[in-house]
Automatic annotation (TrEMBL):
InterPro entries per UniProt: Arf-GAP_dual-PH_domain, ARFGAP/RecO, ArfGAP_dom, ArfGAP_dom_sf, PH-like_dom_sf, PH1_ADAP, PH2_ADAP, PH_domain
Name of the protein this chain belongs to: Arf-GAP with dual PH domain-containing protein 2
Organism for this UniProt entry: Panthera pardus
Ranges for domain Arf-GAP: 9-136
GO molecular function terms attached to this record: GTPase activator activity; inositol 1,3,4,5 tetrakisphosphate binding; phosphatidylinositol bisphosphate binding; phosphatidylinositol-3,4,5-trisphosphate binding; zinc ion binding
Main location (coarse class): membrane
Pfam family, one: ArfGap
GO cellular component: cytoplasm; plasma membrane
PH domain ranges (all copies): 132-233, 255-361
PROSITE patterns listed in its UniProt record: ARFGAP (PS50115), PH_DOMAIN (PS50003)
Domain of life: Eukaryota
Keyword Membrane: yes
Keywords: Cell membrane, Cytoplasm, GTPase activation, Membrane, Metal-binding, Repeat, Zinc, Zinc-finger
């Protein structure tokens, strides 16, 4: 066996070696990475390798399988590896900081990788990190009644737990004052049609208001996102002083478990099926539906309790009910009524079914119970 083959074999073994963390991308956690930064000594996925290519002073990438590896580089990879390098570059990631996963959008991964290695924000001996606190700046916000994005001033007051935005730079009062208590933020780049698109939601009069914003700079929009997260964590610590930080972190912001078009009929199930955009919020246990994906308010919402409370989901339509164009049916049973949907494909049907089953099988948290008792349930609008 030549050097080339021998070194490739050593690398492939190293990818699987116990206790190294090499079997998952060092930056986004994707399984079976087959690229590596041979300057940092980590194994990364193809997507993350694309980000590393942008700062060659700090990182250089090679394919594990396709490129040539000499003895000393393989030696270097053996002495480093994902867990060891993580200990160095992720020594003190603030609790509020969003660490992206494999399925997150590129801007989150890119800023995480740059913050880690290029700006070295989280190294033990790095600069002192002060919590973001207050923040002021301009974001492009999608108009409520038209698709136009307009430049709006946003002001985050972390201590007061408020986010405000203004329609005019020298305007009198803010257009909206949003409580951090009810706020969520989630990157929705595809839906918004912008690689930096962020969806901010908050409660208003029993409904969920959506704001769609972006900034030209990836760093700016991710800094905004993490500033909102820092303010949320601060609020959660005050609201739930008895809970440890580790239990609060998952509550800071949340992503939808699934989104997409389905058709639904009304409460009598004789109404014609209408195409709606659905978004499943797993933490608040809500299925929200909209006429259009970028509507400011939902048209209606379905609260999803637990299987123990009599909620259930079935992979078909009730007898005698036929969909419109789509045949792949789903029926959700709640104590009050049943909801009947059709999905555009069997793949979508399976994904929705699994997502609903996931939420229904979770027991209600004290937070769910608190929300249900203070707010009541809201029907169609
Ligand atoms: Zn990755």
């Amino acid at each position: 066996m030549g050097d080339r083959e021998r070194n490739k074999k050593r690398l492939l073994e190293l990818l699987q070696a116990a206790g190294t963390g090499n079997s998952h991308c060092a930056d986004c956690g994707a399984a079976d990475p087959d690229w590596a930064s041979y300057k940092l000594g980590i194994f990364i996925c193809l997507n993350c390798s694309g980000v590393h290519r942008n700062f060659p002073d700090i990182s250089r990438v090679k394919s594990v399988r396709l490129d040539f590896w000499d003895d000393s580089t393989v030696e270097f990879m053996t002495h480093n590896g994902n867990l060891r390098v993580k200990a160095k570059y992720e020594a003190r990631v603030p609790a509020f900081y969003y660490i992206p996963q494999a399925n997150d959008c590129l801007v989150l991964k890119e800023q995480w990788i740059r913050a880690k290695y290029e700006r070295q924000e989280f190294m033990a001996d790095g600069k002192t990190i002060s919590p973001p606190g207050n923040r002021e700046g301009f974001l492009w916000k999608r108009g409520r009644d038209n698709a136009q994005f307009l430049r709006r001033k946003f002001v985050l007051l972390a201590r007061e737990g408020l986010l405000k935005y203004y329609t005019k730079e020298e305007g009198k009062g803010p257009k909206a004052v949003i409580s951090i208590r009810d706020l969520n933020a989630t990157f929705e780049t595809e839906k918004i049609g912008n690689p930096h698109g962020l969806q901010i939601t908050y409660r208003r009069e029993g409904h969920i208001r959506n704001l769609f914003v972006y900034h030209e700079s990836g760093k700016e929009i991710v800094d905004w996102f993490n500033a909102l997260r820092a303010a949320r964590l601060q609020y959660l610590k005050t609201a739930f002083p008895e809970l440890p930080e580790s239990e609060l972190v998952p509550l800071i912001t949340r992503n939808y478990l699934k989104q997409g078009f389905m058709e639904k009929t009304g409460p009598k199930q004789r109404e014609p099926f209408k195409k709606r955009w659905f978004a499943l919020d797993p933490q608040e246990r809500r299925l929200l539906y909209y006429k259009n994906p970028l509507d400011a308010f939902e048209q209606g919402q379905v609260f999803l309790g637990s299987n123990e409370q009599g909620y259930d989901v079935y992979e078909d339509l009730p007898k005698g009910i036929r969909g419109n164009r789509w045949k792949a049916g789903l029926t959700i049973i709640t104590p009050e009524r049943r909801f009947v949907f059709t999905c555009p494909s069997e793949k979508e049907q399976r994904e929705w079914l699994e997502s609903f089953q996931d939420v229904l099988s979770r027991p209600l948290t004290p937070l769910n119970l608190l929300a249900a008792s203070t707010e009541g349930s809201h029907g169609r609008r």
